[in-house]
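Students often ask why we bother encoding 3D structure as a string. The short answer is that it lets us treat folding as translation between two languages. Here is a chain of 363 residues written in the first language.
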Amino acid sequence: MFSDTPAKSSALLAQILKNDAAGSRLREGDVVEATLLRKTPREAYFDLGRSGTGIVYGVEFLNARDLIKNLNAGDKMPAKITDLDGDSGYAELSLVEAGKQRLWQQVQELLDSGEIVKMKVSASNSGGLIGNLSDLKAFLPISQLSTDHYNQVADSDRQKTAEGLKKFIGEEMQVKVINVNPRVNKLIVSERETVNANVKELLAKYEVGQTVPALVSGLADFGIFVRFADNPQIEGLVHISEIDHRIVDNPKEIVKMGEAIQVKIIDIRENRVFLSLKALKSDPWEKVADFFKEGDTVKGTVYKFNPFGATVDLEHGIQGMIHVSEFGSLEEMKKEIAPGEKYSFKIESLKLQEKRISLKMQK
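And here it is in the second language, the structure alphabet:
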């Protein structure tokens, strides 16, 4: 478990020797260079230089037995001091804890350097993926997946998302370490960050307000993912609120996968680009007074129910709202009207600034 490259082991031991040479007083919890003196079936004794002799025994010996089995007299390795003045008169040591500390140091170095490394996914849960990095358990949150992988699993249904994440088990991913906290055994990695540097450079060519050609690359309950036609590495999101001036229940009503569309850039931040279809369309509410006024009788098609009533599609791209109180309850309303069916309504109120038309059933 604690095998490592000679270079990294030597670097750690060199640091230990440097600290020792500086004359710093050893404390419990310190990691020191230990040289094996001798071992028995139940104990191992180590030379700690000026700090005397250390011993590994009991539970610590059992935990490190596979490691100790391969050691010979004179071999050097890191050891953590767990008790400076043990009952046996020797400093009590832990080889396993020293190994863990070394592993945490290695992932801290990955965080500091920003190095991209490979991680094999071994498990998943509803929040993301679990893998192994430097013999430590690492967590890759769903929000830190690359856009490609995120699009494959993102769903408003938590159970569906969890099921989608399972398909990545066994895959090897390129990741960067973004959070290290050995005190709580927390190691967080990101796949998204591995592409951010390149995307940042590409996004520098674009600016807010620009209209760009794109291809639909993903559909989710909350919006549409598109790739820029001239830079497929850039993928942006059209949030459901930016699809149209009217309420849209399902993005699949508006576009299909692979469709070529024009989008407007409305924001660029944190190496992400946010887009709009609505911004490229004229706002039908600017001329609503030309078509509707309070007291008019109009035809409308029920679009969807909500907790407060129902949204109704009217002509000229306008939507109105009929409140559930018109029927007494949501259950009663569903008995009288149905999505997709057309009915006659009376415009009870028209509030242009609020972009709201309140309707009543025309009896």
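Translate back mentally: The chain has four domains: 6-101, 114-191, 197-280, 287-361. Keep this in mind for the problem set.
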